[in-house]
Structures are given as structure tokens and as C-alpha cells.
Write a structure and sequence with these properties.
FAD/NAD(P)-binding domain, 23% helix, 7-stranded mixed β-sheet, 2 domains, 311 residues, 5-stranded parallel β-sheet, alpha/beta
Length: 311
């Protein structure tokens, strides 16, 4: 079907995917973005203060601006999930989707699938998800107004989540397995917030509740002479996992973390397939990095088509 044939199919609608779309379209490539979450995970971030050109805005506002830029370049955004990519005999690609059942054909692919939240995999986590266990403070902090909550994790992202929770909650415990690893400015913010209590060198072993909601955590370290910590909710912020399941039929190489290995031009090990953003092996996971990689991927897709695809 002619209408489903594209020069570039971009999988993912975050920084990497949207930036790739802007650049690919400016090279006059017929481009579509297929995404299950418009804007990506930045939409769940309360405040963004490190993206050039914007002193301070919400993650949702930044994502909306990015999407407007994509649409202004006449790029189609298709809301769906890609579940499989097949390489055809003529070295083009077939992209299969989950919900609409539509197939798309592409000369090149740009993978900007990002990451998903890492789970603790401890007793009670799965049982109480949505009943006091959450992975997004921006999404769910409003449910814990004047309540006592905990956040598990010590990264910069965890620190930002703790600050969001402190806006609504009465008390925020920050449980850290090793030590706080936040950026200095955010570390100072949470240390100076009287609502936030940082507890380092602690492991949470179990999440308990009363069948309806979370009531307490069990830790390997006593707090106030007990390893039972009473609270109303717990937010888990222990890192992310790259979303790469749809690459199983491609010759894609990964690092030990399961991230897609790319070179400086966003090329993967599979000819015609490029990658950008948090799904790649770039250790510095930031929106500006994803945007940079996306722009490079758009250019590389153009170069690949010019050199390898017969018109």
C-alpha cells in the first residue's frame, strides 16, 4: 500500500524520535513517528531547568513544544506500539503494530524507544502497584496529600521525585541503598527541605499492606528501633531498562546493560537502522543528548538512502 510506504519510520516520540523527525523531514524524507507515549517520559517530569532555550518549564510543556515543531514540518504521528520489525529481501523493513494491526514499510528505521522503569522485584511490589506503589511522582503525588510516603532510590531522578512528593505529602522518606548521587543543586534542595528525610545504606525487603493499600515497608536496617516503616505509599526510582524487544529479528548489537550500541553517527550494527536517546549506549541520559542523537540519526538516514536505495 503506497500510503504506508515511508523513507523513515521512527519508533518512539521522545526527544530522540521527535528531533529525528524534524531533521528527516527537512531532508525531504517521507517520515512517520510511531509512538505509544507522545513526548516520552519527559512528560512525567515536574520541572525541566537544563534544556537550552527554556529556563524553566514542565516536562509536559516541553514535550508539547517538541510535538508542535514536528507537526509544523508535516510529519505524521501515529499512536500505536511497534511489536516487530522485519528486514525484507530488498533490504527495506516491515514494521508491525500492536493495536491498529497496521503494517508500515520503510527504507530506514530510527529506534528511539527509550526506557521503562526498573522494578525492585520484591514481595508486595506487584500486588500493590496502583494501590500505593508508583513509579511516577508527577503522575501520582496528588493522591498522597498530607500523607507519609517513601521513595526508593538515590539518583538525581529520585531526588527530583522526592521534591515533587514534598509539595503534597506531609513526610517523605528517601531510602537509598548506598549513598545520594544527585546533582549538587538538587542534593542541596532535598537536604534543606524539612519534609524530606534521607536514609542511606538501607535495603527495602518487602512492601506490605491491608489488601486495599500499602501500609508499611520492611527494611534490613532499623529505624526508630524497628525495621517496619509505616507509610501510605512508596515510589520506586531505581533506574530504567532499555526498550528493545522489537529488535529481536534484527542484527542489533547491545552492551551489557542491554542498550543499543551506536557509533558517533547514530548507526547500529544493522544497516539501515539507526538509534537515538536513552535506548542507546550513551551513558549520559539527558534530553539534550537524545535530541542531538536524533538529529544525527535523521541525517544518517538521509545519507544511507542516497547511497544505498535505488530510486
Amino acid at each position: 500500500m503506497e500510503e504506508n510506504n515511508y523513507d523513515v519510520v521512527i519508533v518512539g516520540g521522545g526527544f530522540g524520535g521527535y528531533s529525528a523527525a524534524i531533521y528527516a523531514s527537512r531532508f525531504n524524507l517521507k517520515t512517520i513517528v510511531i509512538t505509544k507515549l507522545r513526548g516520552g517520559l519527559i512528560t512525567t517530569t515536574h520541572l525541566v531547568e537544563n534544556y537550552p532555550g527554556f529556563i524553566s518549564l514542565t516536562g509536559q510543556e516541553l514535550a508539547t513544544n517538541l510535538e508542535k515543531h514536528v507537526l509544523a514540518n508535516n510529519v505524521e504521528i501515529f499512536d500505536d506500539e511497534v511489536n516487530e520489525i522485519l528486514k525484507e529481501k530488498n533490504n527495506t523493513f516491515k514494521i508491525k503494530t500492536t493495536y491498529s494491526g497496521k503494517d508500515f514499510n520503510a527504507k530506514t528505521i530510527i529506534l528511539a524507544t527509550g526506557t521503562e522503569h526498573r522494578h525492585l522485584n520484591i514481595p508486595g511490589e506487584k500486588e500493590y502497584q496502583g494501590k500505593g506503589v508508583s513509579y511516577c511522582a508527577t503522575c501520582d503525588s496528588g493522591f498522597f496529600k498530607d500523607k507519609v510516603v517513601g521513595i526508593i532510590g538515590g539518583s538525581d531522578s529520585a531526588a527530583k521525585e522526592a521534591m515533587v512528593l514534598a509539595q503534597n505529602s506531609k513526610k517523605v522518606y528517601m531510602f537509598i541503598r548506598t549513598y545520594l548521587k544527585a546533582e549538587p543543586i538538587n542534593a542541596e534542595r532535598i537536604k534543606s527541605n524539612p519534609k524530606i528525610e534521607i536514609i542511606e545504606g538501607i535495603n527495602i525487603k518487602e512492601i506490605q499492606g491491608n489488601k486495599m493499600k500499602v501500609t508499611n515497608l520492611i527494611s534490613d536496617k532499623e529505624i526508630n528501633n524497628s525495621n517496619k516503616i509505616n507509610l501510605d505509599g512508596v515510589f520506586i526510582a531505581i533506574g530504567m531498562l532499555p526498550q528493545t524487544e522489537l529488535t529481536k529479528n534484527l542484527n542489533i548489537k547491545f552492551n551489557k546493560k542491554g542498550e543499543i550500541i551506536i557509533d558517533k553517527m547514530s548507526l547500529t550494527s544493522e544497516p539501515g537502522v539507526f538509534a537515538a536517546g536513552d535506548v542507546t549506549d550513551m551513558p549520559w541520559k539527558q534530553g539534550i543528548v537524545g535530541a542531538s542523537q536524533g538529529s544525527i540519526a535523521g541525517y544518517s538516514a538521509f545519507e544511507y538512502i542516497q547511497k544505498n536505495i535505488k530510486k
